[in-house]
Amino acid sequence: MDNTASEFLTFAGGLADAAREILLAAMPNDRSVSIKPDASYVTETDLAIETRMREMIDSRYPDHGVLGEEHGSRDLDAEFVWVLDPIDGTAPFVAGIPVFGTLIGLARAGRPYLGVIDHPASDDRWTGVSGDHAKQNGHEVQTRHCSGLSQALMTNSNPDFFSAEEFERFARLKSRVHYTQYGGSCYAYGVMASGRTDLAIDSALDTFDVFACAAVIEGAGGVMTTWSGDPITLTWKGDILAAGDPELHRLAIEVLASDSA
Fold first, then answer.
1. Looking at the chain, which runs of residues are DSSP E strands?
2. Using only C-alpha atoms, what is the Rg of the chain?
3. Close Cβ partners of 17 (under 8 Å, ≥ 6 residues apart)
4. What homologous superfamily does CATH list for 3-140?
5. All structural domains of the chain with their residue ranges
6. Any idea what DSSP says for residue 125?
7. What is d(CA 143, CA 85) in angstroms, rounded to the nearest whole number?
8. Is residue 124 within a helix (H) or strand (E), and if so which, with residue range?
9. pTM for this structure?
10. Which long-range contacts does 33-39 make (Cβ < 8 Å, 24+ apart)?
11. Residue 38: which residues within 8 A CB-CB, separation 6 or more?
């Protein structure tokens, strides 16, 4: 890891510390739920966390861009752009189901560069630099080898997010894997980096939902793309497929593209 990545990863850890402090204090108390135009939840905690992280970024790196879920974006053409999701899994947070966390990604030239997946409820933190390394709680982790779909454990946040056409494609893949686990939110991407799962498939996502996860998974040896195999960029929205094993990813892409099981 070069000095630039090391500096930014240390700073991202500070952002995660600040976010965790706010989130832990709010976990038993925040009932301030509002509905956004896209029908998703937002709470005062989401807003407070993103505000604090943006203040820290503006103070330390005023020439960097920022793309956040709650407070919009600026300077997306900058070489470095911070991609922030203050609470990934706001609905589970509102319901008191502990699979929510904070996602902090950094794009370099529009692509995932480094990321932090912070999960206060389980006291877990994944960090990673794409193509270099990934860690869980300071210990190196790697994705696991699984080159056959019939042996694969797959995760999905919520099948209700799929369109009818997407659900048909998802069902084809689901019929080929060993087992599908639902509802993990960002935690599912962290455990993939640690070699506990093999595939993750989702849709109706936005940039801030995946950039941190992509950097961590790609740092651990995995791959994350669209269902068509296209790279994730700052202008991407929609479907996502991650795999710990590149060969498994290739096979899953083939199934998603096929017309029959």
1. 33-35, 41-43, 65-68, 72-74, 80-88, 101-108, 111-119, 124-129, 133-136, 139-140, 153-156, 179-182, 199-205, 223-225, 238-243
2. 17
3. none
4. Fructose-1,6-Bisphosphatase, subunit A, domain 1 (3.30.540.10)
5. 3-140, 149-257
6. E
7. 24
8. strand 124-129
9. 0.94
10. 33/94
11. none
CA dihedral 112, 243, 20, 58 (to 10 degrees): 10
38-88: pLDDT as tens digits: 646 568 888 999 999 999 999 999 999 999 988 889 999 999 999 999 999
8 A C-beta contact, residue 70 and residue 83: no
Tell me the residue type at 206: D
- For 179, phi then psi, to 5°, come to -160, 150
* Nearest Cα to Cα of residue 218 among 148, 157, 139, 141: 141
Bridge-based pairing of strands 65-68 and 80-88 is parallel
The residue type of 14 is G
First to last CA, the chain: 42
Number of C-beta neighbours around residue 158 at 10 A: 13
Tell me the three state secondary structure of residue 119.
Answer: strand
Q: How far is CA 9 from the centre of its chain?
A: 16
**Could you tell me the fold of the domain covering 149-257?**
D-Maltodextrin-Binding Protein; domain 2 (3.40.190)
C-alpha span between 101 and 80 (Å, rounded): 23
